[in-house]
Amino acid sequence: MKQDRTEAWIAGHLALSLLAVDPAGLGGLRLRARASPVRDAFLDAAPDMLRPFLRITPAMTDEALFGGTDIAESLSQGRLVVRKGLIAQTGTRLVTMSERLSRGRATRLAQVMDARPSDATLLLDEGIDGEAAPMALCDRLAFEIDLDGVRTVDLGELALGAADISAARERLEKITLPDETLTDLVVTAARYGIASLRAPLFALAAARAHAALYRRNSVMEDDLIAAVQLVYAHRATMMPEDDFETDTPEEDPAPPEEQGESDSRETGIPDDLLIDAVRAVLPEGALSALSGQGAQRSGKGAGGAGYRRKGNRRGRPLPSIAGMPSSDSRLDLVATLRAAAPWQKMRRAAEPERSGLILSRSDFRVKRYEERSDRLIIFVVDASGSSAMTRLAEAKGAVETLLANAYASRDHVALVSFRGRDAQLLLPPTRSLVQAKRALGGLPGGGGTPLASGLKVAADVAERARGQGLSPSIAVMTDGRANIGLEGEGRKAAMTDAALMARRIAAMALPALVLDTNTRAKSDLSDLARQMGATYMPLPRADSASISKSVTDALRS
Fold first, then answer.
1. What distance in Å separates the CA atoms of residue 208 and residue 545, rounded to the nearest whole number?
2. DSSP character for 497?
3. CATH number for the domain formed by residue range(s) 175-241+268-294
4. What topology does CATH give the domain 5-171?
5. How far apart are CA 391 and CA 477, in angstroms?
6. Which residues on adjacent β-strands are paired with residue 427?
7. Which of 133, 303, 351, 457 lies 20 to 30 Å from 100 when distance is taken between CA atoms?
8. 126/20 Cα distance (integer angstroms)
């Protein structure tokens, strides 16, 4: 934000104070920060009204979190036994690693938030590029605070105390609103491309809580400015268009009645004041990035980090294991009965009054399946001057050929190009042929050969893909004439850096392939492939079809 680090810290605690004043109206807060002493200090300074924290992790079972029927106890006691989960307790829901929540878990938490709005929710989002907390949850939270870059020396003193918040809670219901306040907030949201209908309501609740916190009886200009800065800045998807003069003919003066309505409207807070307030706290670079763009969201956060639940739904059956059935695991009835059968005589002797099959918790078995996740093939293409003219066309054709069969083979494709002094991810992981052709159409060529940068970008993409449940593999097309290292020019440094990145890929244990595009096989590339743990394949006269076939055969696992 256009604030120093101390101001970002104080703005975050203002959001926490407002949340403590009106948790039902504001929903909660999303905290973007890696696990660190700064994040711990932020949570430790949360008002007592938000405690206790109910810590929720993605690894928790549905039974532990949401509760449900205890099958083993119900069968043992001959009556329905229901266990309450953590979510039934009263307190602030503290969701750790929220970027890793599955879509199903996020949906159930959203239902809980709607049913019990009086309990606030704090999402701890540690996501990096491409990772984010589910939008189903974020949309239900008024605030988002980013503590990236904040250090312990930047932590400022907090002026608000528990007594201030308690007094504000009592004053909240008596806060009045100026006319047209909600209209102003809706107009401001629309001009910033904010489509969520919750945003203006959150801003209104934040303004009322801010007024109550500062002992006012009515919402004032300062309250609205603070509210839109905290609620709208992280939601903005476009910049408002500046008003400009046009050459349209002058209209006749409005009748007296209409003029009177206009004058009364102008007595409210000017729209431009709220527009400028949001503009003042937009992140650096957002002004140019959002300018002229519509309200388009990628939707990546809708399902969190996309972790696949493997082993309990579909695929090749595996032997069942001991465990309790839940929404994430199916009961294997036959295996359960088989496990219980040898113990029936002993159990019946211990409980002669019981009839029928006697089951204990240790008898239950759940099904497992070998489920293969979608595969991602990351093409790393040498677009430097030494190989660009012919190989770029072949690479484009190979990617398009693979994409044409993507739905049948469950493959995704990404494209990394390296030329000049660095590498670029030209095509993020996709199965969309239209998107791929658009990205491939403008693929440039020429310049130096920063092979190490290309391998580094590919390794980064592979790491993110694994976090999203994909099985990445890498195919490198190059002539191996590296002359640009990670830090600058120099053929020796360039090959040393390339070898370093190759060993990083080898440590990730990825299926990999190095396609040598020289007219004659090059020993340096063979050595690089060995360090990468990759298959080496010279293709001096390959076309797009043969490249596609070679990649598919070599990377098939």
1. 64
2. H
3. 1.10.8.80
4. Rossmann fold (3.40.50)
5. 8
6. 415
7. 457
8. 23
pLDDT of the residue at 526: 86
Pair of tokens at residue 354: 């019981």
What three-state secondary structure class fits 53?
strand
> 507 or 547, which is more confident?
507
List, as one string, the DSSP characters of 412-425. EEEEEEEETTEEEE
Pairing mode, strands 28-32 and 143-146: parallel
CA 534 to chain centre: 31
* Structure token pair of residue 271: 């729209």
Residue 337 three-state SS: helix
CATH topology for 375-555 is Rossmann fold (3.40.50)
The answer to whether the beta carbons of residues 125 and 32 sit under 8 Å apart is: yes
Per-residue pLDDT for 439 more than 80?
no
Question: Is 544 within 8 Å of 398 (Cβ atoms)?
Answer: yes
User: DSSP state, 159?
Assistant: -
Distance CA 307, CA 470 (A): 9
Q: How many Cβ atoms are within 10 Å of 431's Cβ, its own excluded?
A: 17
Average predicted confidence (pLDDT) for the chain: 78
pLDDT exceeds 90 at position 361 = no
DSSP letters, 429-490, are EE--HHHHHHHHHT----S---HHHHHHHHHHHHHHHHHTT-EEEEEEEE-----B-SSSB-
Report how far residue 194's alpha carbon sits from residue 237's, in angstroms, rounded to the nearest whole number: 6
The strands making up 28-32's β-sheet, listed across from edge to edge, are: 53-56, 92-95, 121-125, 28-32, 143-146
Helix (H, G, I), strand (E, B) or coil at 317: strand
Q: Which amino acid is at 219?
A: V
Check residue 107 and give its pLDDT. 92
The token pair at 459 is: 């390794």
What pLDDT, on the 0 to 100 scale, is given for residue 315? 64
Residue type, 93: R
* Helix/strand/coil percent split, the chain, to 5: 45, 15, 35
Contact 307, 102 (CB under 8 A): yes
- What lies within 8 Å, CB to CB, of 514 at 6+ separation is 476, 478, 525, 528, 529, 532, 534, 535, 536, 537
What is the Rg, in whole angstroms, of the alpha carbon atoms belonging to the chain? 30
Instruction: State both tokens at 38.
Output: 């700064």
Tokens coding 554: 């070599």
Answer whether residue 219 shows pLDDT above 90: yes
Q: What are phi and psi of 38, to 5 degrees?
A: -65, -45
Residues 60/85, Cβ–Cβ less than 8 Å: no
CATH 3.40.50.300 residue spans of the chain: 5-171
CATH 3.40.50.410 boundaries in the chain: 375-555
CA distances from 47 to 28, 44, 487 (A): 13, 8, 47
CATH 1.10.8.80 domain range(s) in the chain: 175-241+268-294
The DSSP output letter for 533 is T
